[in-house]
């Protein structure tokens, strides 16, 4: 569905007028996202995951490398002009307070993409707006309101409805729930899963929340300093990570379950500056397993032996070290009273309105 | 029990649209020497207002303490005059904020910011102060501390800045540290480092701490006791094991069930219907009732006190869960 080949993106940052300093956000990154899958990209701030999102969404150009969409190469500028292309890839942002126009009524926010992508005549547009309101479970009367009259979670639902209005094929979600309260996150996540499962939309989900990602994704890519260091089926990557960086990320997650508490010491040091990415293996300065080869030869993103579709950019990728499974987390008594709500969030009409 | 800080019946009101609305309602808490108390809640629960009240940091004209007392070292901070507050603030009580970049002075070097307090209070000479600042930075494991003293906040990474904040808060050897979402703005690996530093210092110095957070994972790692707040009230309080292994209030249970690790099998997450009530919403009885799956018309509509379930474990619910064991049943 989506493919990046040797993608490079640099930004100039500071330096003098004679010698600019270049920040490498994406460093010869290659990535394939399959049709209809829920693909998550994880990594710490500054690893380039948002840059990647903006490039795939056609908000920025690549400096080098290629972007393919549905088997066709996307030439640089054309994506800005090509409305069809725009319609097929839509995006949801982190902050629903700044991504919605405060002067537009919710109804108009939903009508705008329909008009600009030529959805049809006025009645067709109105019909679609009603459908969208149902998907996000907004009573029709609320369409006359303005964004400030809604909570963060409700606004994010409006943003989702706007993004899927003109039936995109790919939905890019850049940290869509990190600004929301714990009790609200589920609404948005479940809605996204419905959209993926029932409308067949491909989702590129960008997040730093690994415990969330491990639960909801089909496949996952771990980014470090502008490159994918590990990629594969979510179950495989999270239960048996082969890149030391993935492992420390997983170990750093604070968890309520006392048995599954931190394994190993926290990672020392900080992410090196993207102005000066280390040579050979970019993680070696912080890696507890680094040996001489890591300073000489850069490990490629190669398949892990005896796995299917699990790749890691580490010389020691074939050394299996399954994570001590957080042995059956203790069930919190009473948790079930909230379980029923999970299935309640099933927009009933999603399946039928696939265009 | 020996207490360092005692909050009794604290109520805080905020001004919005010309009206004065209750944001914190009759909160009572205490912190023993060397104890870490976590206040857990979502936005709008009143957890930060409670903490800011202790330090007398509520913004004038916006929020004020309408009722209650905050007893620290024999002084009632709720009614204290500024000079009494100043005697404690920054000395006996230190504070760490969520966003170190806005809490540090951008035009002062790190070293000068740490030294400032000591010099203002005429405690020590400048040279001695600098020596202590260096020791403080070393203590929070800032890399290259000597050089950091002469750097400005913007030259430091988020994790380093938060360490500087901790050093700053601890330089006067406070007995109580209030940390408001200290690692929320940080990446997981950096968060783990900063928590490690905080925990180490707390243990080594026998520091009391109020940790304000929405992240139950951090609480499990750091705290001795937990107070769960919802819509301005404490709904449940107890030890870490009470709250995380045998929670009794439906809201506490709901918060836990929203975490991916406790969600039902499958990809979907648990959803707590509805949202926190608005400040001006009139609610009779339980403030959580509109979202509670166990709501019963009648009993839940009358005022509900905090009920003692076991020594130190209280819950504001007329139908608290009875089960005691954490591993009652496996599906």
Structural class of chain A: alpha/beta
Low-confidence stretches of chain B: 325-331
Rounded mean pLDDT of chain A is 85
Quaternary arrangement of the chains shown?
heterodimer
The CATH topology of the largest domain in chain A: Rossmann fold
**Helix-strand sequence of chain A:** EEEHEEHHEHHHEHEHEEHHHEEH
* Global mean pLDDT of chain B: 89
Spatial order of strands in the largest sheet of chain B? 6-7-8-3-9-10-12-11
**In percent, how helical is the residue content of chain A?**
25-40%
Q: Can you name the CATH architecture of the largest domain in chain A?
A: 3-Layer(aba) Sandwich
Structural class by SSE content of chain B:
alpha/beta
Assign an overall shape of chain B. Answer: globular
Count of helix runs of chain A: 12
The helix content of chain B, as a percent range, equals 25-40%
* Percent of residues in beta strands of chain A: 15-25%
Reading off the top of the CATH hierarchy, the class of the largest domain in chain B is best stated as Alpha Beta
**Major sheet size, sense and barrel closure of chain A:** 8 strands, mixed
Major sheet attributes of chain B: 8 strands, mixed
CATH superfamily of the largest domain in chain B: P-loop containing nucleotide triphosphate hydrolases
């Amino acid at each position: 569905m989506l493919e990046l080949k040797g993608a490079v993106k640099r930004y100039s940052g500071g330096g003098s007028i004679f010698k600019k300093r270049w920040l490498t956000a994406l460093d010869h990154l290659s990535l394939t996202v399959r049709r209809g899958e829920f693909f998550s990209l994880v990594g710490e701030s500054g690893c380039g995951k948002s840059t990647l999102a903006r490039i795939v969404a056609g908000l920025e150009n690549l400096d080098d490398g290629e972007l393919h969409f549905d088997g066709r190469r996307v030439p640089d500028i054309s994506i800005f002009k090509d409305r069809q292309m725009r319609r097929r890839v839509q995006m949801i942002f982190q902050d629903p307070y700044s991504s919605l126009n405060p002067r537009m009524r919710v109804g108009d926010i939903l009508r705008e993409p329909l008009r600009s992508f030529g959805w049809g005549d006025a009645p067709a547009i109105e019909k679609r707006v009603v459908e969208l309101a149902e998907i996000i479970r907004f009573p029709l009367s609320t369409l006359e309101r303005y964004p400030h009259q809604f909570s963060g979670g409700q606004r994010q639902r409006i943003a989702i409805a706007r993004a899927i209005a003109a039936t995109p094929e790919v939905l890019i979600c850049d940290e869509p729930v990190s600004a929301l309260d714990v009790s609200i996150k589920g609404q948005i996540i479940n809605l996204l899963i419905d959209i993926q499962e029932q409308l067949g939309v491909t989702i590129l989900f960008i997040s730093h929340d690994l415990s969330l990602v491990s639960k909801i994704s089909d496949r996952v890519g771990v980014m470090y300093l502008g490159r994918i260091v590990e990629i594969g089926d979510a179950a495989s990557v999270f239960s048996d990570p082969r890149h030391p960086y993935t492992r420390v990320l997983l170990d750093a997650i604070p968890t309520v379950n006392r048995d599954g508490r931190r394994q190993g010491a926290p990672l020392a040091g900080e992410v090196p500056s993207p102005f000066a990415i280390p040579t050979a293996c970019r993680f070696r300065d912080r890696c507890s397993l680094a040996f001489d080869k890591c300073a000489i030869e850069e490990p490629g993103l190669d398949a892990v032996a005896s796995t299917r579709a699990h790749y890691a950019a580490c010389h020691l990728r074939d050394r299996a070290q399954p994570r001590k499974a957080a042995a059956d987390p203790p069930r919190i008594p009473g948790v079930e009273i909230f379980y029923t709500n999970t299935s309640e969030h099933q927009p009933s009409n999603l399946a039928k309105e696939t265009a | 029990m020996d207490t360092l800080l005692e909050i009794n019946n604290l109520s805080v009101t905020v001004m919005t649209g010309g009206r004065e609305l209750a944001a914190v309602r009759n909160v009572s808490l205490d912190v023993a020497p060397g104890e870490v108390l976590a206040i857990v809640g979502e936005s709008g629960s009143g957890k930060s207002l409670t903490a800011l009240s202790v330090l007398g940091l509520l913004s004038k004209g916006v929020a004020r303490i309408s009722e209650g007392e905050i007893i620290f070292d024999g002084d009632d901070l709720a009614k204290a005059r500024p000079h009494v507050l100043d005697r404690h603030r920054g000395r006996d009580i230190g504070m760490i904020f969520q966003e170190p970049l806005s809490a540090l002075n951008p035009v002062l070097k790190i070293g000068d910011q740490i030294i400032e307090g000591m010099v203002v209070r005429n405690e020590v000479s400048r040279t001695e102060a600098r020596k202590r600042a260096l020791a403080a930075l070393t203590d929070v494991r800032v890399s290259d501390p000597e050089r950091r003293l002469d750097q400005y906040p913007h030259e430091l990474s988020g994790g380093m800045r938060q360490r500087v904040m901790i050093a700053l808060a601890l330089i006067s050897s406070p007995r109580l540290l209030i940390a408001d979402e200290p690692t929320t703005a940080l990446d997981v690996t950096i968060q783990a480092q900063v928590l490690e530093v905080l925990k180490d210092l707390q243990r080594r110095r026998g520091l009391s701490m109020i940790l304000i957070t929405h992240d139950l994972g951090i609480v499990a790692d750091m705290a001795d006791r937990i107070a769960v707040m919802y819509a301005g009230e404490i709904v449940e309080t107890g030890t870490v094991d009470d709250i995380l292994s045998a929670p009794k209030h439906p809201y506490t249970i709901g918060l836990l069930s929203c975490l991916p690790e406790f969600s039902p099998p499958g990809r979907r997450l648990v959803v707590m219907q509805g949202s926190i009530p608005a400040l001006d919403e009139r609610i009779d009885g339980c403030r959580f009732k509109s979202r509670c799956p166990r709501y019963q018309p009648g009993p839940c509509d009358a005022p509900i006190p905090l009920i003692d379930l076991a020594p130190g474990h209280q819950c504001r619910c007329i139908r608290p869960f009875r089960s005691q064991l954490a591993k009652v049943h496996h599906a």
